[in-house]
């Protein structure tokens, strides 16, 4: 994959700089390239595109949203081989987006953002990266939420005698065949890893801090006739996508604690557990003590059966400490292990990149978000002009496809860019009042949902304030109705204080002349 090259010693000027080359960053890049109005560049700190689907290479990694819904509506893929795509298939889909949409010449890999600072003098973002300096009129932060692995506090972990790693940093060089393994966590990654580990390890201890609700996944390969229909008739994909979306949307009623929907959903999960696990004691350990939907509902056809294999043991408490090669749970139970695997999620509510972005008055984004992530329309933050955050505050869904949300945010950003193109203004900054109003609306939406009233702590909520800061606490349809259309009334618009430098090249899909492809 060829890519752009920054000229040595020069600052490259572009209209738009996109940080991150996962679904959000690439989707934004595709739409900018197709319209051909703005010069832009995508920077990515890793050596490939793909975001979480590049990073997560653990055994069994797959998506729990159907593939035809977990892909761009403007780039349907008739070749998805099965209902739920595997991680490698999604990664290849994103790489194909780069190839077929001509993004390679606008892409800088191995290019980490070191600092982005808003300049009052010329009303631009001055960005220092590991590969050079960039000046951008608009900054789009598309680094996502699933980028920074989270390791829970475990006493003496540094002294563990064996091997250890996080599921998002899988070590393929270490064979687990015949090993004694400890799997820490029972979330979305863990339930995919467990069946594969159970097929290799000699002994497997699973440390469960809290039991998840699990529903059958129902994955299957598409038939040859179905694949032919998808290839021959694009409308067939659209109809399937609409059907999958509508089915997912119906489940929002349970998340709002509406009856009988929540009762039926809870009973469906408990019935599945009862049908899969005959042992009364194990079934009790696997029964959640919170309301369904408060934490992410998981989907698996083989998790419960893997837990019941003779060499697999469920430890119903968290890993508390290690001593040499022994993993000791909060219960006091001890397990001799050679490898510890942490499937324990990500630092999602306090992204470290926020420390490296400085808005007006050199205010770090991390400081603006010191009481939790906030944004207007889930996308813009006061004090940070001409900056947009994709897949950030309140931009996750607990029941439907994240790609639908990302496409909505992309439409919002394009609307803002269109406004600037039509007006004499060069700077758009959302007002503090608009951000506060958005946060009040979200708090009200979340007030009576399972995410705040379900009796659990989850990654959807800020760990310090308890606010729902990651999740949109309503339907995907309402997300688009509220957040897709740019509205200038929420913004202060202005021109730069000093005369502008010569305008960057626009209006062409060719790489800017500063780049050496």
Key traits:
single chain, eight-stranded mixed beta sheet, alpha/beta, disordered C terminus, 17% strand, 517 residues, five-stranded parallel beta sheet, 29% helix
How would you explain this protein's 3D organization?
By secondary structure, the protein is an alpha/beta fold. 29% of the residues lie in helices and 17% in strands. The chain contains 15 helices and 20 strands. It has helices at 23-35, 52-55, 87-100, 190-198, 224-232, 234-249, 252-255, 261-276, 280-285, 303-307, 365-368, 402-422, 432-446, 450-453, 476-483, and strands at 11-19, 40-43, 107-108, 113-119, 124-129, 132-141, 163-166, 180-184, 203-207, 214-215, 298-299, 312-315, 319-323, 326-329, 334-336, 339-342, 357-358, 387-389, 427-430, 491-494. The strands form 5 sheets. Strands 1, 2, 3, 4, 5, 6, 17 and 18 form an 8-stranded mixed beta sheet that branches. Strands 7-16-8-9-12 form a 5-stranded parallel beta sheet, covered by helices on one side. Strands 13-14-15 form a 3-stranded antiparallel beta sheet, with no helix packed on it. Mean pLDDT is 94; it is low at 499-517.
């Amino acid at each position: 994959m060829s890519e752009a090259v920054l000229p040595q010693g020069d600052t490259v000027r572009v209209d738009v700089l996109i940080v991150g080359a996962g679904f959000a960053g690439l989707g934004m890049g595709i739409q900018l390239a197709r319209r051909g109005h703005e010069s832009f560049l995508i920077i990515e700190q890793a050596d490939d595109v793909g975001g979480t689907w590049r990073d997560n290479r653990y055994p069994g990694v797959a998506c729990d949203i159907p593939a035809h819904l977990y892909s761009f509506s403007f780039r349907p893929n008739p070749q998805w081989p099965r209902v739920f795509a595997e991680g490698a298939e999604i990664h290849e889909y994103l790489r194909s987006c780069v190839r077929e949409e001509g993004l390679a010449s606008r892409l800088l890999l191995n290019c980490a953002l070191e600092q982005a600072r808003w300049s009052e003098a010329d009303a631009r973002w001055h960005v220092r990266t590991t590969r050079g300096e960039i000046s951008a009129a608009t900054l789009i932060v598309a680094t996502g939420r699933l980028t920074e692995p989270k390791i829970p506090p475990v006493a003496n972990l540094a002294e563990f005698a064996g091997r250890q790693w996080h599921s998002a940093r899988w070590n393929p060089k270490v064979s687990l065949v015949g090993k004694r393994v400890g799997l820490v966590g029972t979330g979305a990654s863990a339930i995919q890893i467990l069946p594969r580990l159970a097929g290799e390890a000699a002994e497997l201890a699973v440390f469960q801090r809290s039991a998840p609700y699990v529903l059958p996944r129902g994955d299957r390969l598409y038939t040859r006739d179905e694949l032919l229909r998808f290839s021959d008739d694009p409308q067939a994909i659209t109809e399937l996508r609409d059907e999958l979306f509508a089915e997912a949307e119906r489940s929002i009623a349970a998340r709002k604690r509406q009856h009988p929907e929540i009762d039926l959903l809870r009973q469906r999960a408990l019935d599945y557990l009862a049908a899969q696990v005959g042992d009364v004691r194990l079934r009790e350990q696997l029964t959640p003590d919170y309301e369904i939907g408060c934490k992410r509902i998981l989907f698996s056809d083989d998790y419960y059966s893997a837990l019941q294999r003779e060499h697999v043991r469920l430890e119903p408490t968290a890993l508390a400490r290690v001593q040499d090669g022994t993993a000791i749970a909060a219960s006091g139970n001890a397990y001799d292990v050679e490898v510890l695997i942490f499937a324990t999620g990500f630092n999602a509510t306090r992204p470290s990149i926020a420390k490296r972005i400085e808005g007006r008055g050199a205010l770090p984004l991390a400081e603006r978000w010191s009481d939790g992530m906030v944004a207007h329309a889930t996308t813009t933050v006061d004090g940070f002009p001409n900056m947009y955050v994709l897949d950030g505050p309140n931009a996750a869904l607990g029941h439907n496809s994240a790609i639908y949300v990302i496409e909505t945010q992309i439409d919002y950003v394009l609307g803002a860019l269109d406004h600037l193109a039509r007006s004499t203004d060069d700077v758009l900054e959302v007002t503090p009042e608009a951000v506060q109003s958005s946060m009040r609306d979200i708090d009200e939406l979340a007030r009576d949902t399972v995410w705040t009233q379900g009796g659990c702590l989850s990654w959807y909520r800020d760990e310090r304030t308890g606010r729902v800061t990651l999740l949109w606490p309503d339907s995907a349809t309402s997300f688009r109705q509220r957040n897709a259309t740019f509205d200038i009334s929420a913004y202060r618009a202005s021109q730069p204080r000093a005369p502008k430098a010569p305008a960057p090249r626009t209006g062409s899909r060719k790489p800017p002349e500063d780049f050496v492809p």
